[in-house]
Each structure stands twice: as structure tokens, then as C-alpha cells.
Write a structure and sequence with these properties.
The complex is a heterodimer of chains A (306) and B (263).
Chain A lengths: L3 E10 L2 E11 L4 E5 L6 H8 L7 E6 L8 H6 L1 E4 L11 H11 L4 H14 L15 H12 L6 E5 L7 H16 L3 E6 L2 H7 L2 E6 L2 E6 L1 H8 L3 E6 L2 H12 L4 E4 L4 E5 L2 H10 L6 E6 L2 H8 L7
Parallel strand pairs in A: 3-7, 3-8, 5-6, 6-7
Antiparallel strand pairs in A: 1-2, 1-4, 8-9, 10-12, 10-13, 11-12
Chain B lengths: L1 H4 L7 H11 L5 H26 L1 E3 L5 E3 H31 L3 H6 L5 H29 L11 H20 L5 H17 L11 H9 L1 H14 L4 H29 L2
Antiparallel strand pairs in B: 1-2
Classes of the chains: A alpha/beta (306), B mainly alpha (263).
Bound molecules: adenosine-5'-triphosphate and magnesium ion.
Chain lengths: 306, 263
């Protein structure tokens, strides 16, 4: 049975529809991603799952309960990492964890023991007695994430968890999330980092303007919406546009970004050779495998030249 | 009805109180002390200063009492009110509008009723602390003459409860600090007129009725009765007033928190 089940989930703010009739299911132990550009409705969806945002229509069940009606019960098994940190600035770092655990009704002894483990996890042992305001942005983020684990949640909602983290901290977090997943914890993640989505998510949906525009595993989405390889060429800002028509004829699909042209094909090296043979000579060139980045570009409505 | 009430509480207001106790070290002690000393200064200036000129004045049972003994219970009630209101207005306003504290609490298994009750209890404790300190001052000045004064302590709690709930409910509707100032615009005349420093019988009946509708008057009359150990049917009206004020206020705060943070 699915741990999260959304059907025609809709959220309106006045006239504006932020989430527009989306349906999805998340299986236990699955790692599920929500991808989409700014304003796609990812955070709004997360808030509805946590029961802190009320839906306008549609149905939603989390662990078999309605988060709107049984908010406290649902959230007892939820770990929430909101998009922007909401730490308690009136409390010291350690007290942030202790107090948060107490909100879940955990016994003090248990909370204290867990707090020390989580301080280590967040690499904040030395900062345990610091004020929250004195932490760096990345440290605050790590504390917020650690805090979400205090109640041993069975579902963790991570809204752009690694924004503001340095690469090392990101990898440590991914590693930790992997281990939680192995223990059967369900993850729901939103992110702007495509590598993160590829690393973390078994399955994801791409959202745009409140709707789901694609769904599948990262590999399947890449197969479906992109070619095997991408050739990135830079000709300098003025020539990129001018050469686009000619370049497009060589590839399955071409796309001009402000600073470079992306050519989609199944053999990127061969394509690059052809470009050079025609004497177009880019300033720099790079052949890489397609990624979710390309799926994202294709799906979220930037101008595509077929 | 069940649907409307579900999801409001997990019965853990205590965790909210506990959080506030941990945060106490970071509070502004100067503000705390100012709120406490205000009624004490009134007692010294009016009670001792003016009292010497006025002499005695008829008490709740008609028997004459010193002016200082007349205003002391009233100032103790005001003291409970001050403590409760400082917490439930300024501090709560900051938490609702600027810090994300309630949002954080409500993303755990706490419900809005837990947050409401926890915060009201905290404001209430502050009011009670002020009142207790004030009782100490009264004792030192020889104004405590009956064992009935002990009953003034639970009554201070009750008064603080009513004002804490009222203050927090009102604050939840405020959008700017300017609007918050309105609360203090109401508080000052209420303090001056609610039979604090002189009986309301000096006013025309219409004004008297108006004052009798305000909470502080009930608190003051109740305190004054207890200070000399007089119980009348009105005692129960005063108590009932605050019980209703507190309970209705707490429910209002719960619903407001839900409206503000779960939407
Ligand atoms: N409380 C609100 N009142 C009005 N509109 C809102 C509210 N919250 C969100 N919206 C709107 O709903 C839309 C979706 O917002 P949401 O925060 O869910 O986007 P998102 O996908 O998380 O974007 P981002 O990647 O920037 O975080 C936006 O257009 C936003 O302006
Ligand atoms: Mg968002």
C-alpha cells in the first residue's frame, strides 16, 4: 500500500491555482522527487502532505490518514525540512534539537541521547552551545535537517535540502539519506540540482505551473525525453544565435542558451566532428551524456528548436 | 463539530511551556523589571504619598480602611494584568509576524490548541510572578493583614489567565506594531478608571456600567474583597467573568493560530 496517495490534489490561493489537480503515489521505502522550476508548486505540495497547507480540493492520504484532519498524528511520523530554515533563534543549537524532540512528546532521556548523535551527524558538536544566529548558512541548514530526524520519522519531506550546503556536506547528507532509505524510510525530495535528483530519487515527477508534466525514474525520463548524448558548444554570445539554424539541422534537437548551444544526438563525438568539418569551429566544446537537466529544459517550456 | 475540532491538539502544551522556560535566559530583563515596578511605584507614590492626605476610605464591607490598603489589591490585580499582557501582546506579536516559531511548532505533532495553551500558560506565569512579587511588597509595607491574602495568589493566576488569553487573541488580529499600540491606548484608561485609585461611584451610572463591563474592574473588585475576606454573590460573578474570558480567549487563539498557520 502507498504511504502517500494524492488524487486530483488542488490548491488555490484566491484566483491563482498553485497546484492544479495532481495525482501520484509514493510507495513505502521509495525515494520520490518533485522537480520543477520556481513557482511550479513543489513547496505547496509538500505543505499539503505535512498538513500545514490545506488543499482546495482532491484527496490526500498520508500513512492512511488525512493530514488535514489528523495533522498531529500524521506529523508524529513525519520529518519536515522546510525550504527556508525555521530554527528557534531564542534557543541555543543543542536546545533546538532537545526542544523539537519534546514537541513530539519524546522522553527527555531519549531526546538528550539522540541530540548528541544528531549534533555529530550535523557536524555541529563544537557549536552545540552557540546561538543559532551565529551559525553559517550551511550550518543552519544542517541543523534543520538533523532536527527533522529527531522523531525517527518514517517519511521525510525535504524541500531543497542541500541548498546552501558545500559539496562535502551535500555528499555526507546524500550518504545519510541513502542509509535511512535502506532502513525503509520514505523520502520525498524537491530540488533544483539535477545531479541530486539522479542520485537520490528512485522516481520523480516533473512539475510545471502546478501540473505534473512527466513522471518516471531518472533513467527512463532521460530515455524518453532526451537523446543519449549532448554536445555543448560555445561560439561567443553573438554567434550562438546566428549559427543555430545550421547546427539544428545536424542534430536530433538543438537548444540555444544565452551562453552556449546544446545539440542532442546519440553520438556526440561524431556530431562534433561534423561541426568542425563544416568549419564552424566553436571556442569550446564538450560532449556529455544526457542528464535530467536536459529533460528539465525540454519539459519546462524553454524554447525548443526541433 | 468533530471534524472542526480534529487535529487541534496532541495534549502536549507542556512542551511549549518547556521551550519558553529554556528561552527565558535570552529575554530582556530590563523590560521585565519595568513592568513589575510600575504598580509598585503607584503603591509608593499614591498609597504613601496621597494616602497621607486622604486618610481612610470605606472598604468593600463598608468599614474604613487606609488608602494604601484600598489601592494595594487593585494594584496587585493590575500587576497580574501587566505581566500577562506584556508577554501575550509584544512577545506573541513578534512570534506570529516575524519569527517562524509557531510555524515550526505546528510542523511537529503539536496542534494549534497545544501552542495556544502553552503560550497562554507562559504569559499567565509571568503575570502571577509579578503579582506574587507585588504581594511581597505589600507584606513588607504592612498592608497584608489577613490570611485571606493567600487566596489572592490563585486569584492573581486567574486574572493573569484571562488577560493572557484575551491579549493573545487580540494580538493575533494585529498586523502592525501601530495597531498593537492600540492595546496600550485602551489599557491606560482602563487602569485609571477601574476603581483602582478611587471608587467608580464618582461617575454617572452609564460610565459605571461601561467600566463594569471591562475585565480589570472585575479583577480589582475580586482582589479587594479577598484582601479583607469578604465574599458576596458578586465574588462569583467576578470569578465567572475571568473563567469565561480565559476559556473563550484560549479557544479564539487556537482557531486564529489554525487560520494563520494551517492554510
Ligand atoms: N501563501 C501564498 N499565497 C499566495 N500565493 C502563494 C502562496 N504560497 C505560494 N503561492 C504561489 O504558489 C505558487 C507555487 O509556489 P511554491 O512555493 O509551491 O513553488 P515552488 O515550486 O516551491 O517554487 P520554488 O522552486 O521557487 O521553491 C507560486 O506562484 C507562489 O507565488
Ligand atoms: Mg519551493
Amino acid at each position: 500500500m502507498a504511504v502517500i496517495e494524492a488524487k486530483d490534489l488542488t490548491k488555490r490561493f484566491g484566483e491563482f491555482t498553485a497546484v492544479d489537480g495532481i495525482s501520484f503515489e509514493v510507495a513505502p521505502g521509495e525515494s520520490f522527487g518533485l522537480l520543477g522550476p520556481n513557482g511550479a508548486g513543489k513547496s505547496t505540495t509538500m505543505r499539503m502532505i505535512g498538513g500545514t497547507g490545506l488543499r482546495t480540493s482532491g484527496s490526500l492520504s498520508v500513512l492512511g490518514m488525512d493530514p488535514e484532519r489528523q495533522g498531529p498524528e500524521v506529523r508524529a511520523s513525519l520529518g519536515v525540512v522546510p525550504q527556508s530554515d525555521n530554527l528557534d533563534t531564542e534557543l541555543l543549537v543543542r536546545d533546538n534539537l532537545i526542544v523539537y524532540g519534546r514537541y513530539f512528546g519524546l522522553p527527555m532521556r531519549e531526546v538528550k541521547a539522540k541530540t548528541e548523535t544528531l549534533l555529530e551527524f550535523a557536524q555541529l558538536v563544537e557549536k552545540a552551545n552557540a546561538k543559532v544566529d551565529d551559525l553559517s548558512g550551511g550550518m543552519k541548514r544542517r541543523l534543520t535537517i538533523a532536527r527533522a530526524l529527531i522523531n525517527d520519522p518514517s517519511i521525510i519531506l525535504l524541500d531543497e535540502p542541500t541548498t546552501g550546503l558545500d559539496p562535502q556536506a551535500r555528499h555526507i547528507l546524500w550518504d545519510r539519506l541513502f542509509r535511512l532509505k535502506e532502513q525503509g524510510v520514505t523520502l520525498v525530495v524537491t530540488t533544483h540540482f539535477m545531479d541530486e535528483a539522479e542520485q537520490l530519487c528512485d522516481r520523480l515527477v516533473v512539475m510545471d505551473q502546478g501540473r505534473i508534466v512527466a513522471e518516471g525514474s531518472p533513467a527512463a525520463l532521460i530515455r524518453q525525453y532526451s537523446t543519449r548524448e549532448v554536445t555543448e558548444l560555445r561560439f561567443g554570445a553573438s554567434r550562438n544565435e546566428a549559427l543555430l539554424a545550421e547546427l539544428a539541422s545536424l542534430a536530433v534537437r538543438a537548444e540555444a542558451l544565452p551562453d552556449r548551444v546544446l545539440l542532442y544526438s546519440d553520438d556526440g563525438e561524431a556530431l562534433l566532428e561534423e561541426v568542425n568539418r563544416r568549419g564552424l569551429h566553436p571556442l569550446t566544446s564538450l560532449v556529455r551524456r544526457s542528464s535530467l537537466e536536459d529533460v528539465f529544459l525540454r519539459l519546462t517550456g524553454r524554447s525548443l528548436i526541433e | 463539530m468533530r471534524a472542526a475540532l480534529s487535529g487541534l491538539s496532541s495534549g502536549r502544551s507542556w512542551a511549549v511551556v518547556e521551550r519558553a522556560l529554556r528561552a527565558i535566559g535570552r529575554m530582556n530583563w530590563l523590560v521585565i523589571l519595568t513592568g513589575f515596578f510600575e504598580p509598585v511605584l503607584y503603591l509608593l507614590a499614591m498609597g504613601l504619598g496621597m494616602g497621607g492626605m486622604i486618610g481612610s476610605i470605606p472598604g468593600p464591607d463598608g468599614r474604613p480602611m487606609s488608602y494604601a490598603a484600598y489601592i494595594a489589591p487593585a494594584l496587585m490585580a493590575s500587576s497580574a494584568m501587566n505581566g500577562a499582557l506584556i508577554d501575550s501582546t509584544f512577545n506573541v506579536f513578534f512570534k506570529i509576524r516575524f519569527s517562524k516559531l509557531y510555524e515550526t511548532m505546528l510542523s511537529t505533532s503539536l496542534g494549534p490548541a497545544d501552542v495556544a495553551i502553552g503560550e497562554i500558560v507562559m504569559a499567565l506565569l509571568r503575570g502571577a510572578l509579578y503579582a506574587l512579587g507585588f504581594l511581597g511588597v505589600m507584606g513588607t509595607m504592612g498592608l497584608v493583614t489577613s490570611w485571606w491574602a493567600l487566596a489572592m495568589i490563585p486569584v492573581a493566576l486567574l486574572i493573569a489567565f484571562g488577560f493572557a488569553a484575551l491579549g493573545m487573541a487580540t494580538t493575533s488580529f494585529m498586523r502592525t506594531f501601530q495597531q498593537l499600540d492600540l492595546v496600550f491606548l485602551v489599557m491606560l484608561p482602563m487602569f485609571l478608571l477601574s476603581s483602582t485609585l478611587f471608587p467608580i461611584t464618582v461617575f454617572p451610572p452609564v460610565v459605571q456600567w461601561l467600566i463594569m463591563a471591562l475585565p480589570l474592574w472585575h479583577g480589582i473588585e475580586l482582589m479587594r474583597q479577598l484582601s479583607v475576606g469578604i465574599l458576596t454573590p458578586m465574588t462569583f460573578v467576578h470569578v465567572g467573568y475571568f473563567v469565561v474570558l480565559g476559556v473563550v480567549g484560549a479557544i479564539a487563539v487556537t482557531l486564529r493560530l489554525r487560520k494563520l498557520f494551517l492554510r
